[in-house]
Amino acid sequence: MPRLPTVTVVGSIMTDMISYVPRLPKPGETLIGDRFEIGFGGKGANQAVMARRLGASVRMIGCVGTDAFGDQAVENLVAEGIDAQFIYRSSAATGAAPIWVEADGTNRIAAFPGANGDLDPEQVVKTVLAQPSQVVIGQLEVPQPVTLAAFGAARSAGAITILNPAPAAEIDPELLALTDWLIPNETEFVPLASTRLSTEVGSVTDDQVLAVASSVSPRLLVTLGEAGALVVTDGKVMRLPAPLSQVVDTTGAGDAFVGAFGYGLASGLAPPDAMALALRCASFSVSRRGTQSSFPTPEESQQLLKG
To answer: Which of 51, 101, 139, 297 could form a disulfide with 263 if both were Cys (CB 3.0 to 4.6 A apart)?
Structure first.
């Protein structure tokens, strides 16, 4: 029996609190919403779920509280078939993310890290080295020293490292140096470019991307929402369109992309093919409400793998 692709995700575990509203309320205004849901989230957990549903063997390294939300988050990951034995516990509350989704599917998120901030770099290094994976994925919802330690261990074990720089923040140069693939969306791309050029979300040009790519060591892949994604290869920019989809809720689409791309690299796909798979998974997710609940099921994922 062929060995499954292996992916380790070091990152955040959150409880999502999603409000569906016709528009955001003005200051001082009370607005009646359309719907409210509580679900499982956190960029790290989301990416782990997407990689697992595609068929990877996935291990999650994170930290939750000793509260009910923490218990439920771990139970959810185990139910997904993810190795959750290295999810640590903290006296802090489990991370939470209030999310507002407007009528056109646009989302706004305020993330409160809570226990995610208590993940210990030394624990992470031991865990990464104990069971090396083909791909290790990180984000910026846990402290950067944690991801830096994880990527250092991953590199020593021969793993491919993927950094999703979300939420947008200044990135430690040492962390960038240990990153093989940097995957921002357009909003997260802007801070990378801010000291070198002027750019606006929605109008990223090839020249702007090449300017940033020349100044960072990782390979650069930028997600562009409904416009698809672009990747820098051999000094050139290649753009791939996103499959057409009726947009209901964009929450989690970027995580579906990153998790699927990680799966693709771990399974031996060429980067453009992994990117195309990731676009199919992300486009699928925006057609449904919620975060992990919007991701394709394992059965639907198998269909997306076929193209």
So the answer is: 51
DSSP states of 231-300: EEETTEEEEEPPPP---S--TTHHHHHHHHHHHHHHTT--HHHHHHHHHHHHHHHTTSSSSGGGSPPHHH
Q: What is the pLDDT of residues 142-185, one digit of tens each?
A: 999 999 999 999 999 999 999 999 998 999 999 999 999 999 99
Contact assessment for residue 245 and residue 101, using Cβ atoms and an 8 Å cutoff: no
Known catalytic membership, residue 234: no
| Confidence (pLDDT) at 245 | 87
Q: Which of 118, 180, 249, 255 does the annotation list as catalytic?
A: 255
Phi, psi of 66 (to 5 degrees): -90, 15
Distance, in Å, from the CA atom of 256 to the CA atom of 221, rounded to the nearest integer, reads 15
Report whether pLDDT(255) > 60: yes
The continuous run of DSSP H or E covering 121 comes out as helix 121-130
Which two tokens mark 96? 């939470």
* Separation between Cα atoms, residue 18 and residue 121, nearest integer Å: 31
Q: Which of 9-23, 161-175, 196-210 is predicted with the least confidence, judged by mean pLDDT?
A: 196-210
Cα 46–77–44 angle (5° rounding)? 30
Q: Which domains does the chain have, with CATH numbers?
A: 6-305 (3.40.1190.20)
107: alpha, beta or left, given left = phi > 0 and alpha = psi -120 to 50? Answer: beta
The structure's pTM equals 0.92
Tell whether omega for the bond before 272 is within 30 degrees of 0, i.e. cis: no
